[in-house]
Write a structure and sequence with these properties.
This protein has one domain: Purple Acid Phosphatase, chain A, domain 2 (4-Layer Sandwich). 28% of the residues lie in helices and 21% in strands. The chain contains 7 helices and 14 strands.
């Protein structure tokens, strides 16, 4: 009888797994509409406060790749341990997530699992999506709906014509409410930002400065790197002498191909985003995930381009490249440091 009961449990689990994998979970699209003529308002953004004389600490995690059923379901244990240790040691004021939160044949359970993990810290957190997040049985809106059930999640879906998850998190002075730094969170879809998103970015970057009464520095957080990551590496790294060239304040390493959007010949596609960054003059950092084995940071044409450090072992892993990235907003400015676990 025990053997029969055990067999039935296994059979039921297999049937349940197939049912979940073959079910498509769709969320509710946002009804918000954005137009370039709209007035930027700080009231429409998430605002967190920094005390004078005290650092505001951001922990960025990227590419944990939680999955429901395949081998990555077990690999999520390592990612979970890494994230818990980072939160314990860094004690962040904000956690940002630069995409590929989930992946694999089914993600309906894993997005809940990840959201519960974030909830357990009782810390504000702000995610953006990656190219793998909606590749299976949950669309972006469903994933966002689950995460937005967390009382600590700052994500906003935004105008669906721009994607899902284009929004702003502002860090303000607790003394006078002025904005110290702005985080512009963007959805890079499967490749890169669209033309309309670039216009939205300019509207947000210029809008916060106008609302703040002065030019306000910002960082763009995304999943897939822009073409300038390749241009920056080519300019900064001396292949012959195997070292970084002077003048780029570069660190870290390249251990896999830079997977920015490329044309059929393999050349990076320049979509004009970096030109828009230069035009605003206020964005000083572009921060991405996507590549699991790259951790370089390069100052390129006045803008720092940084790969954040992957959390966990799922979907491609290199020994020594597990951890997170600490972003510190101090009275003197912003600094970035990888924390290796």
């Amino acid at each position: 009888m025990k053997n029969v009961t055990g067999f039935m449990r296994i059979a039921n689990a297999i049937i349940h797994k197939r049912r979940i994998i073959n079910t498509h979970f769709a969320g509710s699209p946002c009804t918000e509409k954005w137009d370039a003529s709209d007035k930027y308002s700080l009231c429409d953004t998430a605002v967190l406060h920094k005390d004078e004389g005290r650092d505001f600490v951001i922990l960025n995690i990227t590419d944990p790749h939680f999955s429901d059923y395949d081998i990555r379901a077990f690999m999520a244990f390592a990612a979970t341990r890494t994230i818990k240790r980072l939160v314990r040691d860094i004690k962040p004021d904000l956690i940002t997530v630069t995409g590929d939160i989930v992946c694999g044949g089914s993600t309906e359970y894993s997005i809940r699992r990840f959201t519960a993990l974030m909830d357990s810290f009782s810390t504000p957190w702000a995610p953006v999506f990656g190219n793998h997040d909606a590749e299976t049985n949950c669309d972006y809106n469903y994933l966002a709906d689950i995460m937005l059930k967390s009382p600590h999640c700052l994500m906003k879906k935004g105008d669906p014509r721009l994607g899902c998850g284009n929004y702003v998190v502002n860090i303000a002075s607790s003394r006078d409410e002025s904005i110290i730094h702005s985080l512009i969170m963007t959805d890079t879809h499967k490749t890169h930002l669209s033309d309309s998103q670039i216009q939205w970015y300019k509207w947000a970057a210029l809008g916060v400065s106008e609302a703040n009464g002065r030019k306000t520095e910002s960082s763009v957080m995304m999943h897939i790197p822009c073409a300038e990551y390749q241009y920056a590496y080519d300019a900064a790294y001396d292949e012959k002498n195997v070292c970084w060239r002077e003048g780029f304040e570069a660190s870290g390493s390249l251990n896999e191909k830079i997977c920015c959007h490329r044309d059929k010949s393999g050349e990076p596609v320049n979509n004009g985003f970096f030109a828009a960054v230069k035009e605003t003059g206020s964005t000083k950092n572009i921060i991405c995930g996507h590549e699991h084995m790259n951790d370089f940071s390069i100052l390129y044409d006045g803008v720092r381009l940084t790969y954040t450090l992957k959390a966990g072992r799922g979907s491609g892993f290199m020994k020594g490249m597990n951890g997170g990235t600490k972003i510190t907003v101090s009275d003197a400015g912003l600094s970035i440091q990888h924390i290796y676990i």
